[in-house]
Amino acid sequence: MSARHNKKLSIQRANSVRSYLIEKGISKDRLTAEGSGVAAGRGQQAWKGRFQNRRVELKITKRDGDSGAASAD
């Protein structure tokens, strides 16, 4: 598969997860979806590596009530 095709699949996968979370009640304004394609690949292209690459990573960038300042704990 081409890098372009993989990028398209990655974007579709991310948008699918975003849609699911919106259906479960999370405000769409709080979510963004990004596809990485081959750029963020972890596994080799053997069949086992392909399963490692078909993933979605969630990153919490700000929590409710968080001022955005890092804590010194």
What are its keywords?
2 helices, single chain, 73 residues
Could you outline the blueprint of secondary structure elements for this entry?
Elements: H1 3-23, H2 47-53
Oligomer: single chain
Helix content: 25-40%
What is the count of DSSP helices, taking H or I runs of 4+ residues? 2
Measured between the Cα atoms of the first and last residue, the distance is: 47 Å
Low-confidence stretches: none
Overall mean pLDDT: 77
Strands, count: 0
Query: Which structural class matches the secondary elements?
Result: mainly alpha
Write down the overall geometry: elongated
User: Which sheet architecture does the biggest sheet show?
Assistant: none
In terms of DSSP E residues, the strand content is: under 5%
Order of helical and strand elements? HH
Radius of gyration: 16 Å
What does this structure look like?
The protein is an all-alpha fold. It has a domain at 3-53. 38% of the residues lie in helices and 0% in strands. It contains 2 helices and no strands. The protein has helices spanning 3-23, 47-53. The radius of gyration is 16 Å and the shape is elongated.
